Amino acid sequence: MTTSADGDVPARLYLAIGRLSRSLRRSGSTGMGHGSISALSTLSGAGTLRLGDLAAKEGVAAPTMSRIVAGLVDSGYVNREPDPADRRAWLVTATEEGERVVSSVRSTRMQELSRRLDGLPPADRELLIKSIPVLEALLVGTPDAQ
Predict the structure, then answer these.
(1) Could you tell me if 68 and 36 are in contact, meaning their C-beta atoms sit under 8 angstroms apart?
(2) For residue 146, what pLDDT is reported?
(3) How far apart are the first and last CA of the chain?
(4) Neighbours of 39 (CB within 10 A)
(5) Fewer CB near the last or first residue (10 Å), C or N of the chain?
(6) CA atoms in the 13 A half-sphere facing the CB of 94
């Protein structure tokens, strides 16, 4: 059931979810790139991680994550220190300021999403609420389902 009278369902769903996600990311903009916010958010939730583990969680190459983390360290959002178990590796942790930024961005984005949901007709809002478990089921077994 990939197509219907309404068009290509997977393509429409992909576009709608992607556009909504990008739109919400813009509403919580801090001037930092998406990669930086995403890495900082991951650190905020996971605590201390090795740089390579953070890169793996974010789905980027270690050199890319190293550049992202360097910028976050320069901004005061992340601490980086050598891993005592392996001096060649680095451990990274969000600072209090980094945690504050993540909290602020999430709050702003949730407020914007709430505003948009409140603008929907009640029947559409109810339909969307009922579809949440279906959308969550699409995540089962995917690497990003955290």
Answers:
(1) yes
(2) 47
(3) 27
(4) 29
(5) N
(6) 21
